[in-house]
Design brief:
The structure holds 2 protein chains of 2 kinds. By secondary structure, chain A is an alpha/beta fold. Chain A has 4 helices and 6 strands, in the order βαβββαβαβα. The chains are: A alpha/beta, B alpha+beta. Chains A and B meet through β1, β2 and β3 of A and α9 of B.
């Protein structure tokens, strides 16, 4: 018997950036415009196959978005192999919150593999991230522009993160 | 290889290092060579030496300059040859490898899993080969383990089956049992399961072995007939809840969530340094359960401590913990209340009574039929109608000379007063009755006997002539008789009647 190894990953970011939608798109292939705030944690799982044939079972912890009502509990990230740092490309403040979250996570758990996702790339008219800003962010972490609505680069984001910690 | 050390540093240190630098044991023999070198200088003023002397001088010089190195080389050579011999000697090599192999394996096993991975294919194919060639040795070796394990598994399955059946039977005849039957029908849950839930004190339905820091599921077992949602996700959520409670209420690091309760379900958790053992319990778990979980978790740490601390997402090694986890799937059921016993007994008695009644009915019917058939078979009796319900009646035709019907019924176990008999008289032409009628009508004197052959009545013996005459006349008018044959009769006085 050769079982697939399991890894825990987390999705963090401020509220309403699309963390739950990204997981829903990735795990169930679904999208809904309806917004439901996550309280605490939602857990899902999905097997990822890398191009070299390696398979990993991802246990995905979709953490609540941090805002003035809810603070992210750092202990949820304990034992995590890596995380997706999610921001909303139409809300510049969400990127700053994401970078702040990253600093707090690293202070508590040390440097962990991460991929920064600028979500909602389908909303091109409201997009605020300039190429210069993108270059700055690229210097700090691996950045992907994603859309949970269209599925653009969603699977790739999870695969990229998996490759980082394997 | 310590002997090679002095060789390298020697040349540059020549003057100073001559003796103190040669730490090697063999090098301590060198000082005489060096001391000889010093008197050489004055001797250069002597007359020119001949060839032999030069050779000797060079030899001495060589001895002084490279002597230690040559000796070291010689020693190395000797050592190398010895090693070469040892290496070429296969037996010796085997002995040497054999001496260090166990320690090497032990050492490597603790380092990582590569050795296990390297040995696995060989071990697997060896086992496969051994089984293909002759399965008996392996079967014999495994028997002491497999035998009890299989026995235990079968015992457990049978015990569960018997317990479920017992409960089902015990509750079958009660009002409550009926109610549960209705509930089972309504909810679509099997009756055994409904009974189980109602009579349950507690039952451990699922056990999760969870890696503490990642919340990943290491192993999971469930009781029979229990369906669980994705245990990987449950494991994660239990860990998240643990973190949530911990963070929200600012507990100490040493404090842990031990119990969660919702309705009839309780989650009990035992915490270890690397893993958590959580049990989902239906009903009210006893305090001892915590001890059971802790003991099992201690054993998991004892068996797989190093695997746990080096856990990298591979859950395969934790299959080994299944028996330990299954040991935690405990259950206890309520004793049966007494009144179920009385009701059940009554029901059984009623059933028995019913059975007896039916048996009696059947027996009575069979007896009646036999009696009626026997009556009908009698010569001179024709049964035309019978009725058994209410007052039993038998109607028909009866020759007055036939047997008594009441006697026939009595012989078949029917009392004469049980049955009303209604007979119409008639004369039967059955030979036995025709003969009886002849006796009745002709009244033969003693010593005369009558027989009937076809329709001819034959008389034998001695009779007075008057009787013969009268009989000749009367016999022919009797139904079923056409002729009277008196040829075998002796006419005379009848024999005297014996007193």
């Amino acid at each position: 018997m050769n079982s697939v190894p399991q890894k825990k990953i987390c999705l963090v970011g401020t509220s309403a950036v699309g963390k739950t939608s990204l997981v829903r798109r990735f795990v169930h292939g679904l999208f809904s415009d309806e917004y439901l705030t996550t309280i605490g944690v939602r857990i899902d799982k999905k097997e990822v196959k890398l191009p070299d044939g390696t398979a990993v079972q991802l246990i995905v912890w979709d953490l609540n978005g941090e805002d003035r009502f809810q603070q992210l509990s750092m202990s949820y990230l304990r034992g995590s192999a890596g995380y997706l740092l999610v921001a909303d490309g139409t809300r510049p403040a969400s990127i700053d919150t994401a970078l702040d979250l990253r600093r707090r996570i690293e202070a508590q758990h040390g440097p962990l593999p991460l991929v920064l996702l600028l979500n909602k790339v389908d909303l091109s008219t409201e997009w605020t991230v300039t190429d210069d800003r993108l270059d700055e962010l690229n210097a700090e972490a691996t950045v992907l522009l994603t859309s949970a609505k269209t599925g653009h680069q969603v699977s790739r984001a999870f695969r990229l993160l998996t490759e980082q910690f394997l | 290889m310590a002997s090679s050390q002095p060789a390298a540093p020697l040349p540059p240190q020549r003057p100073a290092a001559s003796s103190p630098a040669d730490g090697d044991g063999a090098a301590t023999e060198q000082p005489p060579g060096h001391t000889q070198a010093r008197p050489l200088a004055p001797s250069t003023e002597a007359p020119p030496p001949n060839g032999e002397e030069i050779d000797a001088t060079f030899e001495t010089l060589r001895q002084v300059l490279v002597g230690p190195e040559r000796d070291a080389l010689d020693r190395l050579q000797v050592r190398f040859e010895a090693l070469q011999t040892q290496y070429d000697d296969v037996q010796a090599r085997i002995t040497r490898v054999g001496q260090v192999l166990p320690e090497a394996i032990l050492f490597h096993r603790d380092q990582d899993a590569t050795l296990i991975e390297a040995l696995r294919p060989t071990v697997e194919s060896s086992i496969r080969h051994s089984i293909t060639r002759d399965p008996k040795p392996l079967a014999d070796a495994l028997f002491p383990i497999m035998g009890p394990a299989i026995r235990r598994a079968i015992q457990r399955a049978l015990r569960d089956l018997v317990a479920t059946m017992n409960r089902a039977l015990e509750y079958s005849f009660t009002l409550r049992g009926l109610r549960w039957r209705v509930e089972a029908y309504r909810t679509g849950v099997p009756l055994a399961e409904v009974i189980l839930r109602h009579t349950l004190r507690y039952r451990v339905e699922q056990v999760f072995l969870i890696h503490r820091s990642t919340g990943l599921l290491l192993a999971h077992v469930t009781a029979d007939h229990i369906e669980s949602m994705d245990p990987d996700l449950v494991s994660g959520m239990l860990t998240a809840i643990q973190s949530f409670v911990h963070d929200s209420f600012g507990a100490d690091d040493e404090d842990h969530l031990e119990s969660l309760r919702m309705g009839d379900l309780t989650v009990r958790a035992a915490q270890g340094p690397e893993a958590v053992l959580a049990a989902v319990v239906r009903g009210v778990p006893p305090p001892e359960l915590q001890r059971v979980l802790e003991t099992a978790l201690e054993e998991v740490h004892e068996q797989l401590g190093s695997v746990l601390s080096a856990f990298d997402g591979q859950t395969e090694p934790f299959e080994l913990t299944r028996p330990l986890l299954e040991g935690c799937l405990q259950a206890q059921y309520a004793e049966l209340p007494k009144r179920h016993g009385t009701l059940a007994t009554l029901a059984v008695l009623a059933g028995l009574a019913l059975l007896v009644i039916v048996a009696l009915q059947v027996r009575g019917h069979l007896r009646w039929q036999a009696a009626v058939e026997a009556l009908h078979a009698q010569p001179g009796i024709v049964v035309t109608e019978t009725q058994r319900r209410g007052q039993a009646i038998i109607e028909g035709l009866r020759d007055p000379l036939s047997v008594d019907p009441a006697a026939v019924l009595e012989a078949h176990g029917l009392a004469p007063d049980e049955v009303t008999l209604a007979w119409q008289p008639y004369q039967s032409l059955e030979p036995s009755l025709s003969l009886a009628r002849a006796y009745y009508t002709l009244q033969p004197p003693p010593g005369v006997s009558l027989t009937l052959e076809g329709t001819t009545l034959r008389a034998t013996g001695t009779a007075p002539a008057s009787w013969v005459d009268v009989s000749q006349q009367m016999a022919r008018v009797l139904p079923g008789i056409r002729a009277f044959d008196a040829r075998a009769l002796t006419v005379g006085a009848p024999p005297p009647v014996e007193p």
